[in-house]
């Protein structure tokens, strides 16, 4: 037995005796030293699509601050500052979503501080955005269907992001229509409702796949769990858009001064029915959004901020100070979370946790 072991050892020595056992650690160290000397330009090669969510979240928090039921010059000033920051960091291949955020913020911060020209500018921008969002919604999914085959066990709510620019036409219409003449407002509201339905139904189809994945494959890996908060977006946006568009239909009087629907005996009652239906639908969708938020909260600690808290609109329509208080508290928490995420993001860059070889896209 000893002779056998000795022969094996001698054979191994003959075969590998000339190999320096320190070679591999040295090569590894050389690679580490090389990586340590990466310039910022070289690090930009690892700049990923996920970075562009910061533009959406910054604009979303700015708009949330503009609708908080708290009268404060400091909050308004802070919201304006974040609006400007949103414009400065808005270069994004996502294209649609950050632009929608900026246009929505323009109604809150731009109209009160500029001339009447901005009303017409917003109208032109809305239709240009709608055309571009339609093209993007078709092209994005065509590329996904033909260029790369996705694995069903890796499905995340982020798969619905390509339809977000189109879905935000509804949110945009709810923010802009009330500032427009009745004819333009009516056209915007029809377009908004159409695209909001498109986005919500595509999200519902994606939810079925996503829920099946959670049941059969479990939660995503830790690094991907913050993306679970994206599922909160579609029902929240839809609730926001429905209530906003119903209110705009009342303010602009589109059913009494523009549309003449056949078979409707009392057109003056349409706005009231729309507002009631929108309120009931928003409450219905709020529960779905809250459920997705709760599921994601148990899986991660960072959130994908929705653009405006539907809780505030529901509180306004129900005339409930309690719900308004909850909405205001959620808005404050949202801003604090945004600050925390900004700090964590900067820390991740400086500590080479992201935008670095072996991280980001290299880890998936």
Please explain how this structure is put together.
The chain has helices at 2-16, 23-36, 40-43, 53-66, 73-88, 96-110, 117-146, 164-176, 182-217, 233-252, 254-257, 270-299, 310-318, 321-350. Among the domains are: 51-114, no CATH class; 117-303, no CATH class. Helix 6 (96-110) packs parallel to helix 8, helix 10 (233-252) runs antiparallel to helix 12 and helix 12 crosses helix 13 (310-318). The model is unreliable at 1-6, 11-34 and 301-308 (pLDDT under 50). The chain is mainly α and 364 residues long. The protein contains 14 helices and no strands. GO terms for molecular function: malate transmembrane transporter activity. It comes from Monilinia fructigena. It is found in: Membrane. This is C4-dicarboxylate transporter/malic acid transport protein.
Name the features.
364 residues; 69% helix; disordered N terminus
The separation of the N and C termini measures: 48 Å
Sheet-strand content, in percent, reads: under 5%
Number of strands: 0
Q: Which segments are poorly predicted (pLDDT under 50) over 5 or more consecutive residues?
A: 1-6, 11-34, 301-308
Mean pLDDT: 77
Alpha-beta classification: mainly alpha
Helices and strands, in N-to-C order? HHHHHHHHHHHHHH
Shape: globular
Percent of residues in helices: 55-70%
**CA gyration radius, whole angstroms:** 26 Å
Number of helices: 14
Major sheet characteristics = none
């Amino acid at each position: 037995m000893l002779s056998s072991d000795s022969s094996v050892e001698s054979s191994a020595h003959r075969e590998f005796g000339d190999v320096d056992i320190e070679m591999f650690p040295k090569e590894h160290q050389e690679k580490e030293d090389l990586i340590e000397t990466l310039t910022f330009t070289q690090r930009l090669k690892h700049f990923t699509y996920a970075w562009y969510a910061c533009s959406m979240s910054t604009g979303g928090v700015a708009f949330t601050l503009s609708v908080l039921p708290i009268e404060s010059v400091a909050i308004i000033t802070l919201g304006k500052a974040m609006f400007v920051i949103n414009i400065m960091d808005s270069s994004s291949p996502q294209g649609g979503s950050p632009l929608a955020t900026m246009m929505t913020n323009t109604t809150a911060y731009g109209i009160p501080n500029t001339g009447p020209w901005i009303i017409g500018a917003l109208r032109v921008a809305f239709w240009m955005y709608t055309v571009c969002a339609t093209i993007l919604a078709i092209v994005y999914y065509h590329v996904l269907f033909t260029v790369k085959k996705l694995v069903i066990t890796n499905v995340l709510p982020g798969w619905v992001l390509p339809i977000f620019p189109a879905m935000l036409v509804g949110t945009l219409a709810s923010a802009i229509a009330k500032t427009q003449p009745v004819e333009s407002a009516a056209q915007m509201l029809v377009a908004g409702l159409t695209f909001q339905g498109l986005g919500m139904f595509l999200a519902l189809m994606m939810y079925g796949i996503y829920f099946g994945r959670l049941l059969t494959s479990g939660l995503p890996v830790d690094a991907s769990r913050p993306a679970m908060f994206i599922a909160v977006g579609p029902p929240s946006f839809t609730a926001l858009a429905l209530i906003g568009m119903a209110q705009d239909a009342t303010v602009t009087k589109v059913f009494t001064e523009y549309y003449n629907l056949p078979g409707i005996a009392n057109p003056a009652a349409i706005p009231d029915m729309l507002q009631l239906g929108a309120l009931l639908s928003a409450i219905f969708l709020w529960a779905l959004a809250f459920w997705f938020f709760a599921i994601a909260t148990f899986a991660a600690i960072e959130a994908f901020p929705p653009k405006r808290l539907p809780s505030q609109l529901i509180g306004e329509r129900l005339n409930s100070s309690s719900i308004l208080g909850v909405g205001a508290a959620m808005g404050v928490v949202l801003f604090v979370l945004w600050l925390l995420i900004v700090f964590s993001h900067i820390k991740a860059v400086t500590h080479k946790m992201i935008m670095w070889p072996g991280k980001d896209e290299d880890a998936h």
